[in-house]
Design a protein that fits this description.
about 325 residues, alpha/beta, seven-stranded parallel β-sheet, three-stranded mixed β-sheet, about 15% strand, globular
């Protein structure tokens, strides 16, 4: 079974399972138009992992019947300082309920898709691995906090869970956690295709089909940003998921990451498609941080909203570089 099958990664995983001759069951909160699935073959079952979603634990347990391997991809992703209750309901409480239901249903292996933000960020520019100390708590980002808490619940012994005021983890499925970085994939998410159908448009299967007109202005972008991120191909992550299900050691986490890139590497990769200008002006990390302060000040003075805040500016200065040797 796959949760989160209507997302970008979920669609790629279903396609890979189909290629292996498997028609997975997919847990859905609501019905999806059959046309939105395109060439994907699935067996839909209905339920909601979040508390208050209209499903009690017995109904969720029934939906998991006959499941041996569960790929848990469903999550709320919003990199901002708001929506803490919603993140907690889905990313933490939903994972706890799903694991409890899987324990009762007799699921054998629980493959939990977390994120690199539950591992941390590099402080010295060297790629980090699964053993790194988590250092992102000061940002107080609900998505970061709840993804980390879900891992703690799934991987920690009961004594530690009691100290953290988290519920006991029952004797249940073997747990393997995987931590992808920024995922890029060519298949459009099923939920996006469903939205296109609802609006009367023909559903497209590719994430990007045409270069937007505004891209022409990128040739005026002459800045070299202090970017340090890791990007990974969705198909590679999906192969890692299947490997984790078959070979992952119970109670372990694995970084499913791809390329550590800076601004120069990113620019070189996209220049054949987007006319980005030459990086003439270097932007120091401190300048990026102060730009967030400035935008917040202007927003308060003009009583307008801004998406570029100090919190996001600080996030942009993080060195998100990782070493996937353990997963490999």
């Amino acid at each position: 079974m796959v949760t989160g099958a209507t997302g970008l990664l979920g669609g790629h995983l279903v396609k890979l399972l189909n290629d292996e001759g498997i028609v997975p069951r997919v847990l859905l909160r609501r019905r999806i138009p059959e046309k939105a699935w395109g060439d994907l073959r699935v067996e839909p079952v209905y339920g909601d992992i979040a508390p208050g979603g209209g499903e009690n634990l017995s109904e969720l347990t029934h939906a998991l019947g006959k499941t041996r391997t569960l790929f848990h991809l469903a999550a709320l992703v919003h990199v901002g300082g708001k929506k803490r209750e919603a993140h907690t309901a889905v990313n933490l409480d939903g994972t706890v309920r799903l694991y409890d239901a899987a324990s009762i249903a007799g699921v054998e292996r629980f493959v939990h898709v977390s994120s690199v933000v539950a591992v941390g960020a590099s402080e010295d520019g060297e790629p980090i691995d699964e053993s790194a100390a988590w250092n992102l708590a000061p940002f107080r980002i609900p998505y970061f906090d709840t993804k980390r808490a879900a891992e703690v619940f799934l991987l920690s012994p009961r004594e530690k869970l009691e100290k953290l005021d988290l519920p006991d983890r029952r004797d249940g499925p073997e747990v393997v956690v995987v931590n992808p970085s920024i995922i890029l994939g060519e298949r459009r998410a099923v939920r996006s295709r469903a939205a296109m159908i609802a609006s009367g448009c023909a559903p497209s299967n590719r994430t990007v089909e045409t270069i937007p007109r505004w891209a022409a202005f990128l040739r005026l972008f002459l800045f070299r940003l202090p970017l340090a991120i890791n990007v990974v191909d969705a198909d590679d992550v999906c192969r890692g998921l299947l490997a984790a299900a078959a070979l992952g050691r119970p109670g372990e986490r694995y970084l499913l990451t791809g390329h550590n890139i800076d601004w120069t590497a990113l620019r070189d990769a996209v220049r054949p498609f987007l006319p980005i200008g030459p990086p003439i002006l270097h932007v120091p990390r401190a300048a990026l941080t102060w730009s967030g302060r400035a935008f917040e000040f202007i927003a308060r003075a003009t009583r307008r909203k801004t998406k570029w805040t100090l919190r996001r500016a600080r996030l942009a200065t993080l060195r998100l570089w990782y070493n996937p040797a353990k997963a490999e």
